[in-house]
Amino acid sequence: MKKPNNRKRGKVSKSIVFSIVFLVLGFILAYSYSLSQSDDGSDNFIANSQFEKEESFREELIEQQERNKTLREEMLAKQEALQEFESAFSAGQEDYSEIAAEAEKLRRYVGLMPVEGEGLKVVLEDGEYGSQAVNPNEYIVHESHVFQVIHEMYISGAEAVAINGQRIHSNSTIICTGPVIEVDGIQHPAPFTIEAIGKPDVLAASLELPGGVLDQLVNDNVVVTVAEGLEITMPALLSES
């Protein structure tokens, strides 16, 4: 009977061990490769996802910038329109203020509203005459004398004029009837007080010009008294006439 070949057995055992080692080593290499591939894919996925987010944010930022630009242009256009409107409104206000001021001035001038202001007062009185006077009419105040004073007041810039407290206007009638004068149908006895609202120094200087109204009244034997720098109040016209 033959004995087992130990040498042959040893060779088989080594082959089995090497096979197992190579198998395990192959498995480890395959697993490592799989893991590396999995990691690379995950990294690539994360990188791609991050890039897509950044690209989305970039597009949103560009879109928002364009929107801001459009809104800024609209705001500038609105501001220009507002400035034009304010300029037009200011000009309209100025025009309205000028018109209103002119209208009030005209109402004051024609006597449709009461007025008050600084001015002067001129009092006309009959002159003294004796029994030897040839013509007593040469010593009394006539409507022509009143007209002279009123006319001088207006051309000197008077805003309003009154006789014995009665406002007069451009169409007023002044008639002398004996010892009284009639203003728009209302009689007033002497003395006659003529009040004028305006610059007192200008009005007084106009009356006192050499050879002017004051000198003419004195030459006609009329007693004249002038008081300036007064605060004068006048009512509106008594009627539309």
From TrEMBL:
One Pfam family per UniProt: DUF881
UniProt KW Transmembrane keyword: yes
Protein name: DUF881 domain-containing protein
Family from the record: Belongs to the UPF0749 family.
Superkingdom per UniProt: Bacteria
Coiled coil: 54-88
UniProt keywords, alphabetically: Coiled coil, Membrane, Transmembrane, Transmembrane helix
Listed transmembrane segments: 12-33
